């Protein structure tokens, strides 16, 4: 018996374009509706994906009422994630929400409750898990090649990467700056690789030395919601220290702006284990030469540079294809709502720790 593909819709068409590629690629979905408050952006995407005018909406409530959707991607400014995801769940759709799941733990838990109540799936778009080099590290961990991991350094640092659209740098719309924007990917990669160890306490320190002076922005043409008149009131750099069960430490660092090599943008994830260390070091989104493995053989230190092949899908496309297959086959969601809730809880504690100037215990 063949079943009809699920009807997919996307709300928010910035990174929403990456979701469109995923829905177009999945054999289980048909992209049928688009929504964006910016009519110009909406029209451009509609042409690109061949969506008829009657299935294009500037009001997400109209789309949820009229388009009869099975699955909805929520790709809006962070502060809208909770309201819109809950509305989509209540309209009977499964939801794939962009990161961060929400701007507060209270909102994230309300979203989780709504999903449970409606018996629909709520998933989070942690696309950075879908890298070939990260898959190799996960495999090494599964094989025990690192022994017991006791230390993780997870950072994403840019020389000049402050998003130039207004909402990212306004707390009421974003919930936070560099840490909630890119730090959350690093946090998720670390936790996911280690099968979500329990985090016991969080310390954080946030700074804003560049955005507040209008420096080091990403000069990008932006489409909508440009409220640049409002002041920059989020972190453009933040560090965190997480004390976890089993004497594991996670060191986090996210920075949109700092003095370093021009336009440098680095993702770094280092796991120190009792039997080996893996280092993922990605400069300006390159794919090759990103890995190092260090261990000891016959009493001598050894360095290996694995040459991982990138085959098949990666990023959002892989995430969506895999998540839709899991949905149809009633398998667990690869990036479940609980992973979204944990991320929000930890970052909320990190921001609170910075405010209180002390370590914060997680419940
Ligand atoms: N996973 C990733 O790698 C990744 C990358 C970029 C952004 N994101 C996340 O995706 C989300 C969106 O970010 P972005 O970069 O696409 O932002 P963006 O500003 O480029 O796009 C947001 C879109 O939402 C539309 N919008 C705003 N309010 C709306 C409303 N009420 N109804 C309908 N449309 C509305 C805007 O017109 C705009 O086109 C954020 O949560 C961000 O953190 C994730």
TrEMBL record:
Residues 6-126 form the Gfo/Idh/MocA-like oxidoreductase N-terminal domain. Signal peptide: none annotated. Transmembrane segments: none annotated. GO terms for molecular function: nucleotide binding. InterPro entries: Gfo/Idh/MocA-like_OxRdtase_N (IPR000683), Gfo/Idh/MocA_Oxidoreductase (IPR052515), GFO_IDH_MocA-like_dom (IPR055170), NAD(P)-bd_dom_sf (IPR036291). Residues 137-277 form the GFO/IDH/MocA-like oxidoreductase domain. This is Oxidoreductase. It comes from Candidatus Thermofonsia Clade 1 bacterium.
